[in-house]
């Protein structure tokens, strides 16, 4: 079914949260010898871990109920996993187009700043590696390297969600078009070409 249907894709928000959790714990390891700072960082680390655990459950549930749209008797059948839910007309799928202005805004306000942060962290990491070899410096280097990884992941995640996926509204089964879902660009093109007559 999914091979011929439009299959939902997921953004990487929860994964970014997990990486952030790792970054906070790594920072805690670096500053644990400074009690005043370590105490606050530990609270943040525990909080992000709890939220991250909820994120794991949320992602697992979403993946079990992945939406697939499939041609059905002149309409689109909405399946969650392999279970049919309801059907609706193709015209009721409302893609939210990014457009040139939106694309330029994403590049200027998000992608370029993330790239700049990545480069700045790389410069700081390089200076640290060249300038010191103590235990404290090595801990700092790990933090900066992990922060670079997090920034690179955020860059790819934003690029993917804004340029490789299309945000759509579809009906929720109660006559309201308020169910948010992301589809790959090629899946949206397939929907636009689909002959449901």
Describe the structure.
By secondary structure, the protein is of the alpha+beta class. The chain has one domain. The strands form 2 sheets. It has a 4-stranded antiparallel β-sheet with strand order 1-2-3-4. It has a 3-stranded antiparallel β-sheet with strand order 5-6-7. Helix 1 runs antiparallel to helix 4. The two termini are 19 Å apart. 12% of the residues are buried.
Strand order of the largest sheet: 1-2-3-4
Shape: elongated
Measured distance between first and last alpha carbons: 19 Å
Order of helices and strands: EHHEEEEHHEEH
Structural class: alpha+beta
Topology, number of strands: 7
Largest sheet: 4 strands, antiparallel
Strand content: 15-25%
- Helix content estimate: 55-70%
Low-confidence segments, ≥5 residues, pLDDT <50? none
Q: Compute the number of helices.
A: 5
Number of domains: 1
> How large is the radius of gyration?
22 Å
Mean pLDDT: 85
Per-chain topology:
Layout: E1 6-7, H1 13-31, H2 35-64, E2 67-72, E3 75-80, E4 83-88, E5 94-96, H3 99-131, H4 135-164, E6 165-170, E7 179-184, H5 185-193
Antiparallel strand pairs: 1-2, 2-3, 3-4, 5-6, 6-7
Helix pairs in contact: 1-2, 1-4, 3-4
Short key terms for the protein model shown above:
single chain, 197 residues, alpha+beta, 4-stranded antiparallel sheet, 3-stranded antiparallel sheet, 5 helices, 7 strands, 18% strand, elongated
């Amino acid at each position: 079914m999914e091979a011929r249907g439009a299959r939902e894709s997921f953004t990487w928000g929860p994964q970014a949260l997990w990486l952030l959790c790792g970054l906070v714990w790594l920072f805690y390891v670096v500053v644990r010898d400074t009690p005043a700072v370590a105490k606050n960082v530990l609270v943040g680390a525990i909080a992000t871990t709890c939220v991250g655990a909820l994120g794991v459950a949320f992602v697992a549930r979403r993946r079990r109920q992945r939406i697939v749209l499939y041609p059905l008797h002149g309409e689109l059948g909405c399946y969650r996993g392999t279970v049919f839910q309801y059907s609706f007309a193709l015209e009721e799928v409302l893609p939210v187009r990014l457009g040139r202005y939106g694309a330029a805004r994403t590049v200027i306000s998000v992608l370029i700043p993330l790239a700049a942060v990545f480069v700045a962290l790389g410069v700081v990491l390089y200076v640290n590696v060249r300038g010191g070899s103590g235990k404290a410096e090595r801990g700092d280097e790990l933090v900066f390297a992990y922060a670079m990884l997090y920034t690179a992941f955020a860059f790819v995640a934003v690029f993917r969600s804004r340029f490789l996926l299309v945000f759509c509204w579809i009906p929720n089964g109660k006559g309201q078009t308020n169910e948010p879902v992301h589809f790959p660009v090629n899946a949206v093109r397939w929907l636009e070409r689909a002959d449901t007559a």
